[in-house]
C-alpha cells in the first residue's frame, strides 16, 4: 500500500512539473523585489548618516571661511553628483518595476495557456522543463545573489546587469511557455479552433492597458483566416521602383543612451517631433524626404508607412526587399507556419455587478506590418513606437518584435494600424 501511495504521489508531482517550476519562478521574482527594497532601505539609512556627518563638517568649514575656489569646486561636484543620483534612481525604478511585474506576467501567461490546453500543458515536455529550470538558475544565480551581496556589503549593485537578467528571465520563461503551447498545437491529431478560456485560474496580473503576451505563431484552423486569405495577388503592388541611391533625411538623436528591453532588443532616445509633415515625392512616387523616425528604417519600409500602398509584387515570390535587398521572410514557410498572433487580455469594470469582466482578443500581425518595420541594416524597428512613443524600439529578430508589440502596445493602437487585424471570435 505504501509503495502504491508513493507511486501515486510521484505521478501527481510529474503531472504538475511545469506548474511547480512556474511557481518557483514567480516566487523568486517576489523574493527579488523584497531584497531590492531592503537594499534600498539600507542605502537610505547610510545616506542619512552620511548627510548628518556632512552637515557637521559644513558647519566647521563655514567657520573656517572656505575660499571661493573651494566653494566653486564643491558646487560643480554637487551638480555632477546630482545628475549621477538622478540616473541611478531611474535605473533603480526600472529594475524594481521589472522584478515586480516579472512574477505576475509569467504566472498569468501560464494560467492563460493552461486554461486553453488543460493538464497536458501543466505537465510540460522535457524541453520546456529544461528551459524554465535555466531561467530559475539565472534568477537565483544572478539577481538574488547580487542583491544579497549588495545587502551584506553595502556596495551598490550593477543595476543594468540586474535589470537585463530580470528581463531575460521573464522573457525566456514566457517564451518557453508559448513555445510549448505551439508544440502541443502542432502535435494535435486534428485541426481545431482554440477553445475559449475556461474556468481555470485567472491571470494574477492585470493592467488597464491590457498588455498580455502574444501566443507565438499559430496553426491555421477552420476559424482562423490563412495567409492565402490575406495575401492574394491583389495585395501586392507592381509600381514600386527602388531608388538608385539611398539618401535619407537623418533625424536628430537625443543625448540619452539606449535601454535594453531584453537580450535582443533595445530603445533609442529620439529628440525630434512625432508630427508628420508632407513628404516630397519623386516622379516614381517614392518619398525623397522621410519625415519622422526615418533614419532607422529601410527606405521601402518608410514608403509603405507613408503611402499606404500594398506590398511590392516581388515580395510574394522572393521575400526580398526591393530597395535594400534584405531577405525578410521565406514565402513558403510563412504560408505553412501561419501568421503571428497576439492575444490580449482586456479587463473592464462592470457597473451593474461591480465585478471585473475579462475578455480575450486576438490580433494577427500581417506580413505588411513586418515589412514596414524592417531596417536596411538588418532587423526591425517597431512602427507603433515610432508613431506613439518618444522612443524607438529596435529588435534583431521577428520574434522579438512580436513579443514587444504584444506586451508594450494597447488594443487602441492596434485598431489604428491597418496591418494589425482583429480576428477575435
From TrEMBL:
As given in the record, the signal peptide range reads none
| Segments of skewed composition (Low complexity) | 229-246
- TM spans, by residue? 16-36
- Basic residues: which segments have biased composition? 261-275
Which domain of life does the protein's organism represent? Answer: Eukaryota
Point to the regions of Basic and acidic residues compositional bias: 51-89
Renumbered residue ranges of the record's region Disordered: 42-103, 190-286
Per UniProt, the keywords (alphabetical) are:
Membrane, Transmembrane, Transmembrane helix
Looking up PANTHER family in the UniProt record yields:
C2H2-TYPE DOMAIN-CONTAINING PROTEIN (PTHR42354:SF1)
Q: What is this protein called?
A: Uncharacterized protein
Amino acid at each position: 500500500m505504501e509503495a502504491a501511495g508513493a507511486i501515486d504521489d510521484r505521478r501527481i508531482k510529474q503531472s504538475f512539473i511545469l506548474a511547480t517550476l512556474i511557481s518557483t519562478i514567480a516566487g523568486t521574482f517576489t523574493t527579488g523585489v523584497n531584497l531590492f527594497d531592503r537594499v534600498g532601505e539600507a542605502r537610505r539609512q547610510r545616506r542619512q548618516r552620511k548627510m548628518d556627518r556632512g552637515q557637521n563638517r559644513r558647519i566647521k568649514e563655514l567657520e573656517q571661511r572656505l575660499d571661493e575656489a573651494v566653494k566653486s569646486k564643491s558646487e560643480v561636484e554637487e551638480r555632477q553628483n546630482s545628475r549621477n543620483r538622478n540616473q541611478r534612481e531611474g535605473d533603480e525604478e526600472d529594475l524594481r518595476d521589472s522584478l515586480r511585474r516579472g512574477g505576475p506576467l509569467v504566472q498569468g501567461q501560464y494560467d492563460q495557456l493552461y486554461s486553453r490546453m488543460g493538464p497536458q500543458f501543466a505537465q510540460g515536455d522535457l524541453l520546456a522543463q529544461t528551459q524554465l529550470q535555466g531561467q530559475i538558475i539565472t534568477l537565483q544565480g544572478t539577481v538574488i545573489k547580487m542583491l544579497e551581496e549588495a545587502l551584506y556589503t553595502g556596495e551598490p549593485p550593477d543595476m543594468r546587469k540586474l535589470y537585463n537578467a530580470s528581463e531575460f528571465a521573464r522573457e525566456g520563461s514566457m517564451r518557453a511557455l508559448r513555445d510549448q503551447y505551439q508544440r502541443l498545437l502542432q502535435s494535435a491529431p486534428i485541426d481545431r479552433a482554440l477553445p475559449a478560456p475556461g474556468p481555470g485560474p485567472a491571470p494574477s496580473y492585470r493592467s488597464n492597458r491590457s498588455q498580455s503576451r502574444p501566443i507565438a505563431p499559430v496553426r491555421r484552423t477552420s476559424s482562423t483566416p490563412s495567409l492565402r486569405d490575406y495575401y492574394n495577388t491583389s495585395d501586392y503592388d507592381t509600381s514600386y521602383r527602388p531608388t538608385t541611391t539611398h539618401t535619407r533625411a537623418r533625424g536628430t538623436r537625443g543625448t540619452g543612451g539606449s535601454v535594453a528591453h531584453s537580450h535582443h532588443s533595445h530603445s533609442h532616445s529620439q529628440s525630434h517631433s512625432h508630427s508628420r509633415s508632407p513628404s516630397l515625392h519623386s516622379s516614381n512616387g517614392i518619398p525623397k524626404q522621410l519625415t519622422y523616425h526615418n533614419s532607422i528604417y529601410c527606405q521601402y519600409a518608410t514608403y509603405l508607412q507613408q503611402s499606404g500602398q500594398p506590398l511590392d509584387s516581388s515580395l510574394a515570390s522572393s521575400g526580398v526587399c526591393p530597395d535594400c535587398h534584405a531577405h525578410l521572410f521565406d514565402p513558403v514557410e510563412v504560408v505553412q507556419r501561419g501568421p503571428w498572433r497576439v492575444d490580449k487580455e482586456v479587463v473592464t469594470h462592470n457597473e451593474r455587478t461591480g465585478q471585473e469582466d475579462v475578455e480575450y482578443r486576438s490580433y494577427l500581425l500581417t506580413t505588411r506590418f513586418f515589412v514596414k518595420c524592417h531596417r536596411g541594416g538588418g532587423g526591425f524597428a517597431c512602427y507603433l513606437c515610432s508613431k506613439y512613443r518618444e522612443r524607438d524600439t529596435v529588435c534583431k529578430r521577428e520574434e522579438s518584435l512580436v513579443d514587444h508589440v504584444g506586451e508594450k502596445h494597447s488594443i487602441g493602437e492596434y485598431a489604428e494600424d491597418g496591418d494589425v487585424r482583429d480576428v477575435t471570435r
